[in-house]
Automatic annotation (TrEMBL):
Transcription in keyword set: no
EC annotation from Swiss-Prot or TrEMBL: 2.7.8.7
Organism whose genome encodes this protein: Pleurotus ostreatus
Organism ancestry: Eukaryota, Fungi, Dikarya, Basidiomycota, Agaricomycotina
Molecular functions per Gene Ontology: holo-[acyl-carrier-protein] synthase activity; magnesium ion binding
Protein name per its UniProtKB record: holo-[acyl-carrier-protein] synthase
Length: 290
């Protein structure tokens, strides 16, 4: 990774596209893996329910990541802080103490419609847990409402300044994009600091043109926000639908200011974002329990 800021605690993101319908056999295979390897997560067994399938697929991402690192399931454990922040600790058998301290893997899992994501980084425990992933599909819901009404439905999460940046004279496309950027930035930050569901989003203010952020009226420094898009092709029955997601990975680096990094091209993403789909995940199931 060429960016000097990424040498300490390099960031990696995996995006899993739920790109087609799943079979009951696939559901059962995933359920068994999660039951065996992630026993602390209680997933309701309900094959027709796509939400539970999404949950299973997301919980399998850390297993796949560790499998890629060739670390057997018996050689690592999933740990969690009191605020729900996860990190993976390897069994220190054959690791020298210094290496062991820097071998912690902090990660955060997120889902949004057809997309399951995992952001992770490696280093010392107190640093790596400060990572979060925000994702928002570029889609107006419910279908048929105006863009202005859709923006208003989020107004309780936005500040006056943020709302002024999503004004109707910009046109629907720009309004939707800006709204999704702000929402995914807030979501990534809130998840990175381990805040509970009831957190008041309007306490945060992202000034996109100035690339600054304040929380409770004070500048938030030391943060790195990586902003990018995920474009998926998803089969709905016989039709292939294109879906676009605005994504943000937030990580606390402790630098003197906060940094916004915009990744526009696929090439820029390739070094740290990996895309996989249902077929690829299902294919490795037999290896995940090893």
């Amino acid at each position: 990774m060429s960016n000097p800021a990424t040498t300490d605690c390099p960031i990696l993101v995996w995006m899993l596209s739920l790109n087609r319908e799943y079979t009951k056999e696939e559901y059962d295979a995933c359920y068994q893996v999660v039951k065996e390897c992630v026993p602390h997560e209680n997933v309701n067994y309900n094959p027709p329910d796509a939400d539970t399938f999404r949950q299973l697929m997301t919980l399998m991402l850390p297993l796949l990541m560790m499998r890629h690192r060739r670390i057997p399931r018996a050689k690592w454990r999933d740990c969690v802080t009191p605020t729900g922040k996860h990190w993976i600790e390897q069994i220190p058998d054959d690791l020298p103490p210094e290496k062991f301290l820097h071998s912690m893997i902090g990660y955060h899992l997120a889902t949004e419609n057809s997309l399951c994501g995992m952001a992770m980084t490696q280093g010392i425990q107190r640093k790596v847990i400060n990572i979060g992933l925000g994702m928002k599909q570029l889609l107006v819901e419910p279908r048929g409402i105006s863009m202005q009404t859709y923006v208003e439905s989020f107004s309780h999460k936005l500040t006056q300044l943020e709302l002024s940046m999503i004004s109707p004279d910009l046109g629907d496309e720009v309004m939707l994009r800006r709204l999704c950027i702000i929402i995914s930035l807030k979501q990534a930050y809130i998840k990175a600091i381990g805040q509970p569901i009831g957190f008041d989003w309007s306490r945060l203010e992202f000034n996109i043109p100035e690339e600054t952020v304040i929380g409770d009226g004070h500048p938030l420094t030391g943060w790195e926000f990586r902003i990018f898009k995920a474009n998926l092709g998803v089969a709905r029955k016989e039709i292939l639908v294109e879906e676009q997601y605005q994504c943000v990975c937030a990580f606390f680096r402790g630098t003197k200011d906060s940094k916004f990094i915009w990744h526009e091209s696929q090439k820029e993403l390739e070094s740290w974002v990996q895309f996989i789909n249902i077929d690829q995940m299902v294919k490795v199931i037999p290896k995940l329990t090893a």
